[in-house]
Specification:
single chain, 159 residues, mainly beta, Jelly Rolls, seven-stranded antiparallel beta sheet, three-stranded antiparallel beta sheet, 2 helices, 13% helix
Length: 159
């Protein structure tokens, strides 16, 4: 199950992309599969309770099924241009991805790809888009061509 919600504005009149890009301390090397993986991307866990609340409230407002579930983790992914993230599964959770990107140009790439029934399905990273999907689905990010790709990820434990 993959749900796509458009026009999901988390914060009004605020440059969230540049705030997340320049005002936070990222750690290099998220390992999605196991400890032997080559690390990719940069990540920081969202510690600011207000920022986390904004994203959680927005996710729950659009995807009501999350309402009584426990948040496992809230963090930000950053991939540099041309970086190649791994295929992976998130586990027994619901994953929410907020695309915090400038206006989208299809030539930039940057979709989230899912492997379903031997086919790759891509969800375009449009500005103010939220996708919610079952964490057991095989997926990966793809990078933008010319600038960093930033997503806010929330993971909620399934009941």
């Amino acid at each position: 199950m993959i749900k796509v919600y458009d026009n999901v504005s988390v914060v009004q009149n605020f440059d969230l992309y540049n705030f997340l890009l320049y005002q936070n301390a990222y750690v290099y090397g998220e390992k999605d599969k196991n400890e032997d993986d080559t690390p990719t991307g940069m990540v920081f866990d969202i510690k600011d309770p207000l920022l986390l609340e904004w994203f959680c409230n927005s996710a729950i407002q659009h995807h009501k099924e999350l309402q009584n579930l426990k948040l496992a983790r809230g963090y930000v992914n950053l991939f540099q241009p041309h970086e190649r993230p791994h295929w992976h599964k998130d586990g027994n959770c619901w994953t929410c991805l907020f695309y915090v990107t400038p206006e989208y140009d299809i030539e930039e790439n940057g979709e989230t790809q899912f492997l379903e029934d031997g086919e790759i399905r891509g969800i375009l990273p449009k500005k103010d888009r939220l996708i919610v999907f079952d964490g057991v689905l095989q997926h990966r990010a793809t990078p933008f061509r010319n600038y960093p790709r930033i997503t806010v990820a929330l993971k909620y434990w399934k009941e």
